[in-house]
Amino acid sequence: MPDTLYLLDGHALAYRAFFALLATGSRFQTKSGEPTAGTYGFANILFRILEQEKPKYLVAAFDTGKTFRNENIQ
User: Fold this and answer.
1) Inter-residue contact 13 to 42 (CB < 8 Å)
2) What is the pTM of this model?
3) Where in 1-74 does DSSP place strands (E)?
C-alpha cells in the first residue's frame, strides 16, 4: 500500500462541523455556555479519517492573520 498523505483545511472543517451540528438541534456547550460543537465535530471527523482511511501522514492547516475569508466581512 502506498504512503498516504491527508491535507485538511482545519478552519473550513471546524466551521462545517460547527454549523452541521447546530443544524441538527444539538447544543454542544460547556457549563458556562462556551460553544464546543466545532471542536467536537472536528475531532470526530479527524478520528473517523484516521480509523477508516489509516493514512500514514495527516496535516491540518489553520489560517493565521488576514486571509481571503476576511474579504467579504463588513
Assistant:
1) yes
2) 0.75
3) 5-9, 57-61
User: Which of the residues in the chain have pLDDT under 50?
Assistant: none
Is residue 62 within 8 A of residue 15, CB to CB? The reply is no
Amino acid at 27: R
The answer to whether 56 and 2 are in contact (CB under 8 A) is no
Helix (H, G, I), strand (E, B) or coil at 19: helix
Task: For residues 40 and 28, give the distance between their C-alpha atoms in angstroms, rounded to a whole number.
Answer: 8
- Joined together, the cell numbers standing for residue 29 give 456547550
Residue 16, SS3 per DSSP: helix
Please give the Cα distance from 67 to 63 (Å, whole number). 7
